[in-house]
Amino acid sequence: MAPLLLLSLSLLALASASPSPPADEGSYIGVNIGTDLSDMPHPTQVVSLLKAQQIRHIRLYDADPGMLIALANTGIKVIISIPNDQLLGIGQSNSTAANWVKRNVIAHYPATTITAISVGSEVLTSLSNAAPVLVSAIKNVHAALLSSNLDRLIKVSTPLSTSLILDPFPPSQAFFNRSLNSVIVPLLSFLQSTNSYLMMNVYPYYDYMQSNGVIPLDYALFKPIPPNKEAVDANTLVRYSNAFDAMVDATYFAMAYLNFTNIPVLVTESGWPSKGETNEPDATLDNANTYNSNLIRHVLNKTGTPKRPGIAVSTYIYELYNEDIKAGSLSEKNWGLFNANGDPVYVLRLTNSGSVLANDTTNQTYCTAREGADPKMLQAALDWACGPGKIDCSPIKQGEACYEPDNVIAHANYAFDTYYHQTGNNPDACNFNGVASITTTDPSHGTCVFAGSRGNGKNGTSVNITAPSANSTTSSGIRSDLYYSRGIWSILTVMILNVANIL
Questions:
Q1: SUPFAM superfamilies in the record, alphabetically (predicted)?
Q2: Domains, the chain
Q3: How confident is the model at residue 452 (pLDDT cuts 50, 70, 90)?
Q4: pLDDT by residue (tens digit) across 91-129?
Q5: What residues contact residue 164 under an 8 Å CB cut-off, 6+ apart?
């Protein structure tokens, strides 16, 4: 069986903007995108990664205009967010909320598929002084959408922490912290009246770490456990084989305790850290891989939960990138699926999930120099790729794996193919003014392994190569000037050729 790309989160079912999907509608996996990186990739490079990995749903922690512009006309569905530090102003002023919606929604919709607005995040547990205005802020944003006839297309909610749910097991006796009922009841009433969903951040990792051994690691990781080890709700006799389902069902029961029974749950964050401090021994690559792989499989299998079997519980993985400058412990910086340069942190184990991984390398393609291409035009294109094209050309420097054979065709093959793969195998990226073409023949040779080659990547699994950050000229942060320094004339040649093609 041909090796598969790392993380092609192909979404088996169509994603709907409706927050209240019918039982036969598929659930989906999304990904959160944090920005606490010292070398945050450019928005166009983030979108290239999303496309290459077939990630069709994302959540932003703000409404960054660069990201929203880059996402335009991609079909990727986006939850945008109002940061906590803007909550007070929006909660106290209709005009402030209207201006925010005008600037961050109306300016981009419908080219950018905004499906929901997250008003703050975990406000009731992290920003208690804003709790009194939370529901007002949500209503002000909704009113602004209503005035633009977008209220049925874009939903409004706020992510809550599961720590608000007291006595979460057994789930049937769970209830929200009663001291916050003055906020939670109006919130749920709003969600019900607008057909929206309750956003929850569900982290079995934290529950496991705080349980002092009461919660087994396998139960937290979705690992198979024998029936006699399953957790049983004594009131309903329902059996739970994993902590995630128990936490989601506790949310349903907590809402039912307040007489709200028809509000769906959307899990806006869930994941597992791949590295931690010495007092976090279970924050490991293997456990992060196990949890996220099993979570993806569980969600896409449309299993639902024991309380609501078959009902979609769509989930956003936390998160796309490791955030190296995020405040807090080591584990706080290591929840990502990718590093900033696009390298995968680990290879998800999804090979037994049917068609979840769509980027099968059986028909892998490459971009190489067209036979008979003019050497001067090849050199000009090569100079552009290694300069303004911002690919890492260090492997074709003297002494490196792809230096030999030392000729413009071989070096252009490497540069063209790297650029082609970092754009997500976009056919338009394999042209270079007519001197490049797509081929199914792997140009790798010896120790020189090209992007996308079946021999490339960890454990023999092909790894998607993504564009480096806009803040650096190579993925390693070292300027690749081997060819760029040969003269600005070649770059100008490419520019002239581009103009000639347009004319």
A1: (Trans)glycosidases
A2: 29-338 (3.20.20.80), 366-453 (no CATH)
A3: low
A4: 999 999 999 999 999 999 999 999 999 999 999 999 888
A5: 124, 125, 176, 177, 180, 184
- Catalytic entry in 25, 269, 319, 371: 269
Residue 319 burial (C-beta neighbours within 10 Å; 0-12, 13-18, 19+): buried
- State the average pLDDT for the chain: 82
Position 27 scores a pLDDT of 84
The SS3 call for residue 374 is coil
pLDDT computed for residue 51 by the predictor:
85
Cα→Cα distances 308→12, 230, 441, Å: 20, 18, 49
Alpha-carbon gap, residue 313 to 219, rounded angstroms: 19
SS3 466: coil
* Helix ranges restricted to H, 259-330: 285-300
Question: Using CA atoms, how far apart are residues 269 and 266, in angstroms rounded to an integer?
Answer: 9
- Side-chain-side CA neighbours of residue 478 (13 Å): 7
Give the residue-averaged pLDDT of 30-37.
96
How far apart are the C-alpha atoms of 315 and 292, rounded to whole Å? Answer: 11
For the chain, how many residues are written?
503
Closest C-alpha among 287, 309, 319, 313 to residue 300: 313
Can you tell me the distance from the alpha carbon of 331 to that of 273, in angstroms, rounded to the nearest whole number?
A: 6
Most confident of 220-229, 439-448, 485-494: 220-229
Active-site residue among 25, 122, 280, 332?
122
Partnered with residue 429 across adjacent β-strands are: none
pLDDT in tens, 57-76: 999 999 999 999 999 999 99
pLDDT above 70 covers a percentage of the chain that reads 81
Question: Is pLDDT above 70 for 282?
Answer: yes
Return all residues near 44 (Cβ < 8 A) that are at least 6 apart. 70, 467, 470
The 3-class secondary structure across 319-359, one letter per residue, is: CCECCCCCCCCHHHHCCCCECCCCCECCCCCCCCCCCCCCC
Token pair recorded at residue 324 = 């190296």
